Fold this protein.
Amino acid sequence: MSSELAQIYDIGELVDVTQGLAINSKTKHLLSDEGLPLLRITDLFSGSYSQFVAQEGVPKQCIANSEELIYTRTGQVGFVFTNKVGVVHNNCFKVTPKDDRLSRRYLYWYLRQESVRSYVNTVASGSVQKDLNHSAFKTLKIPLPDLEAQRKIDSILSSLDDRISLLRATNTTLEAIAQALFKSWFVDFDPVHAKMQGRAPEGMDEATAALFPDSFEESELGAVPKGWHVMPVGDAVETVGGATPDTKTPEYWEPAEHHWTTPKDLSGIASPVLLGTERKLSDAGLKKISSGLLPVGSLLMSSRAPIGYLALTKVPMAINQGYIAIPPGGKLSPLYMLFWCQTNMDNIKGRANGSTFMEISKKAFRPIPVLVPSLAVLDAFEAVTAHLFGRLVENEKQAQSLASIRDVLLPRLISGQLQLDSMEFDDAS
């Protein structure tokens, strides 16, 4: 059972391509407050939907169910999605096998290959914005093994994907627990309210409960626990920016020794931790950035295009000008500030300005008032959340390792370089 001798087809012989729905940008016809989600490219990536379409009047062929494949054709060309339900936007099309010679799942994995994405970007038209037409897409060459081999390939790759999904679902839960604790202690002040009412704070031992006051006092943020302080965030933590060394000067980039990040590195992360970067700097390049290498545990917040990506660094790294970074060592830890930024992101974005794109500067960020709890309470919070994030980091490392294995296997399985008969794969391992 091998795809080694698989016949090669033009993909247009095996699939139908259906264009998505065109929405008039001025009249925005068919858009409504409710209905089916409009599956735009940005929504497909984020998994959240901001526009909806009234189902009445939408051609049936533009509606995707959870099993169908959606392929991006404009701008970000060559990404495939499944498990999406809604109205496919005109910047995408559906790709559907014509008959049972081609498994939909095998087709999904074929389209996920980096080599396929590279090819369609080559044949797509447009210099400013790429646009892939149906005819160009249909020139793709696809090897077609028998259905048994197609199913085996899907089984191997899906097993890896399932493990990755489970790890990241666990991380979502771990992050949610930490967020809930932050909200309870530092937004809703549940332990203080409980003590005011003569109750023991829920889910808390006596030693931890004793760290909280039993009354409030007024501040510029309203009533806050007595003895806690409100100050500008710039007085509570250090804030630093970065830079981009001249990209036309090779000695700034080679040899590639030091991690250097742009907000692009944060755009696709599954958990708020950054384990590595797409690019690295040389020693000479690092000297061009005044903030130098930020230590492990620094908080990164993208400050423009867009504002609000957040992550804690897990390796030393330098940053470009698209960040405000908070290194360890201030009155408030980067971990505390991660949740504070999440909670106060609307306020942060509200202080941004700009004509070409919105940006929050360090000058605008630093005056924002922040609540500084007692050191003992902060230490207690850090002890709990640091443990949760330690587990989260290990899960993410494992997920990325499995993703690397999957991405290495994918083209070899599709091309027939790997003999399926000789592969043993334990789904439960």
User: Anything to note?
Assistant: The mean pLDDT is 93. The chain has three domains: 7-145, 146-188+373-429, 234-371. The domain at 146-188+373-429 is CATH 1.10.287 (Helix Hairpins). The chain is about 35% helix and 20% strand.
